Amino acid sequence: MHHGEFRDPRVVALYDLAFPWSRDDDFFVAELAAEPARDVLDLGCGTGRLAIALAARGYAVTGVDPAGPSLALARRKPGAEAVTWIEGSTEVLPPDAFDAALMTSHVAQFFVTDRDFATALADLHRALRPGARLIFDARNPDARGWEQWDTAANRRTLRLPDGGTCVMWSEVTSVVDGAVSGTQHYEFSDGDRRTATLTLRFRTEAELRAALAEAGLPVETIYGGWNREPIGHPDGEFLVVARRR
Ligand SMILES: C[S@@+](CC[C@H](N)C(=O)[O-])C[C@H]1O[C@@H](n2cnc3c(N)ncnc32)[C@H](O)[C@@H]1O
Asked: At what angle do helices 205-214 and 114-127 cross, to 10 degrees?
């Protein structure tokens, strides 16, 4: 599935304004550093915020994303030359190549069907070396986070570098079998309006554990919050560390 928000250059340019470095990134940096690793995959690297920061820390980083305009923005950033960028998804991953793989900002939820997720995990299993880790975040469906998405509190006004503004908000259009679909709205101060549709899959802890075990990537730990709290923390996350057998 193509997600417009990562492919429309005017909307892509908003991403880093809307989602700057945060405690999420601190978590992934710390978790990665918990064990020695050299070759690191950032799958769904988007505009490259974390991939470039990890390369600056000395990792050999490969950033993979199917959205060309997001990768184009990533490639223009300072430090981008230290990262290997590949346009595509898990089908492009080289075998036996990585000591760790990350999927951050809920990339795992973009694999909506069970079949897509199983295929992605099988590809990741092939790309990881034995003993390598897969570290990712996924929202806990019990927190029902989507119920907050189209509230007034979630309407944001971004100040743009050109002096203009963009108001962005989300509308949930359906919730079916753990798949939450919605429309992102962008209203620029010059009158331009854009929309992008999106479907994200919310998997239960049991579903995540089963899919990972099936792929030969059994779960080692799942935290529930960004400071490594147990599952059920109000952060509403599953922060998963799995390891290739
Ligand atoms: C919310 S963004 C996260 C970007 C980045 N990881 C970050 O932390 O800012 C989700 C990213 O997942 C990418 N994506 C969507 N479907 C994907 C797929 N099938 N394989 C890999 N990446 C995918 C999108 O293009 C987008 O860049």
From this structure: 50
